[in-house]
Amino acid sequence: MTKRGYIRLFSYAIAFALLLSSRAIINMTTANSYKAQLELNYQQSLNELSENLDSIETNLTKSIYSNSDKMLMDISKDLYAECSQAKDALSRLPIEQMNLGSTYKFITQSSDYASYIANKIASSQTISTEEHQNLNKLLNYAQKLNESVSNMATIANNGCLLYT
Fold it and tell me: Is the pTM of this model over 0.85?
């Protein structure tokens, strides 16, 4: 091979290496951008879930102290709506990686129980003491869960990664 052939081969090799390097840099930048966007979406969903759990806790507290059936029915409807919004926020999070499986179960149970209470009152039935105790149990669990998710949201908002 001539000197000219070696120079040409070396030039092609350098051009190919530069092309691969630039492509790798572009791909890495794009991946980091997607990762940052995913993290932001997770933070927003976690904050929304935290707010919904706070509202669920508030509505459960109101339901325990409500004096009339009409008020309890209105609170139950609000509780059902908050549970639906919480499920929506939770559906945008990696449930398994963040250990939120029990959260989904709680939200579903609260939603179903709120619907049950509203339907029972709508059919002119009274709420029993046992059903009030069940609301109290849901409230106790909501308080623990709300604290846990709030702590998780605080950690995420301080810049720690939620998902790697």
Answer: no
